[in-house]
Amino acid sequence: MSKTMSSTGLRRTRMSRSWSSAVSLLALLLLLAATAVGAEPLVHALAMHGSPKYPADFAHFDYVNPDAPKGGNVRLADIGSFDTLNPFIIKGQAAAGIGGLYDSLTVASADEPFTRYGLLAESMEVAEDRSWIVFNLRPEARWHDGQPVTVDDVIYTFDVVRKEGSPQLRFYYQGIAKVEKLGSHRVRFTFSDPDNREMPLIVGEQAILPRHYWAERDFSKTTLEPPLGSGPYRVDSLEAGRFIVYRRVPDYWGRDLPVNRGRNNFETIRYDYYRDTTVVIEAFKAGEFDYREENSSRHWATAYDMPEVEQGLLVKTTVEHENPAGMQGYVFNTRRPLFADARVRNALSWAFDFERSNRTLFYGQYTRTRSYFDNSELAATGLPGPDELAILEPYRDRLPPEVFSEAYTPPETDGSGRIRDNLRVAHGLLREAGWTIRDGKLVNADGAPFEFEVLLVSPLFERITLPFAKNLERLGITARVRTVDAAQYIKRLETYDFDMIVFVWGQSLSPGNEQFNFWGSAAADQPGSRNLAGIRDPIVDELVAQLVSAKSREGLVSHARALDRVLQWGHYVVPHWHIAYDRLLYWNKFGRPEVTPPRGAQFGAWWVEPERELRLRGRIKSVPR
Do 241 and 157 share a domain, yes or no? Predict the structure, then answer.
């Protein structure tokens, strides 16, 4: 071949270079055009509204100790039993702590309303209207068997969860229109509703599963085989229904990421299972496990009067937080004809004497709950302001007039136990709804008596519910109180086989798609949903949709308050009570970060202090090792 190029070859080379330049220019223009119509640059985090608190080069979250020592063994407690290590399906009772085996695409911070930072995802690209999101996976992410985490794993996860996962997960992900592989470490989610601004954050929450592991197993079945994960812990040992131990993965791929610094410090975490709360408390006091969050005011006030507390060996403390209290209460199953009338539901709320219970049973520790978002700016208070009125006005003719004219307040008493005036109001409401007294019993027009069952899972609520039932008896109503085991209780809730239950809907500082699951018509008949009240109200559906699509924090707050008012005046629950702090007890072997975030105590950022543990062992032989 000649070393000199012919004139024809030279022309072809020049033409090729010109064509290549034109193609490159066209590609650049297309990229710029794509950016102009909505693609954002690569981001390390995504906030629901506004900008993330932490910049791309942040070293660690403010509420951790980045130099916390690793090591130490921790024992925790749970009640009941477990029979599966697959928490993603409706079958079985999953073991406590099993989530520590898995990483998700992103992780939340505890000092922002709703912001997700990259975990498995190194970066993200999000459409301006949030109709799609691209996750760029970290090449170094590994499963515990050493294989890389890939886009195939992400796609498999969402396929199998949407097909065979729990109803709650399927409900969450019904807004995903398409999941596409753009490369071995690049995946794109497209959403069917571009107004659902929360979906890009929600898909980042899902624990990612290994496709190669589950390809040889039936995902729809319960299992006690320790599953393969990619997270900071793996299953070390277990005995079904009795205990499970997790061990920290020494070569965990993500241990040095900023989102993980100062977290996952314990060498092992063991959960022991106990029959009931009474046994749990006695086991804790005997030093059988390390840490407990107390949810009973009586136990908090009376059960821990121990010399170890005075000696500083056992720490008893409260930690304030800014979490919305959510709504706990007696929940009416409006699927039952008995509770279909809001006047009936309102009437029964007048028979609940919170003030007496707070004085005689709760040691005055609680505040009465009146909002589904208490203890936060999301709660509706007073009369609706201009922003709320603008939201509610189109529905004025279909809403109770009280939504616009009264601030909702649950019925009150003087705490003496004498509630004749309240019962008189209740009688009037029941009479309006067609119920009358006959031979001392409340009956409807057909002569059928007013009878129902209050289903409980904790004996602690019997002391509160039995006086409530006694007051209902004075109205001519028979309310039978029945306490069942956890497995039966869960099953009956999943199938809505109850008249009235005690339940709590937890809330976040950034409510969103979970509200469809709580109150949406589509969830009312879906087994396993959290719409336990059976609400089927098109107004509620529209208000939730508007809440989810709110484009600013201010808009979200206004829509949350509007939704709150409609739920309040729907009388779907007899509201209970709440506190604005965590009640913590722990044997003094731990170190804690100096900063407590708005979401309260973060036990996952604590660590074991070896010297404290040694001193503790020397004084109390039964303290866990």
Answer: no
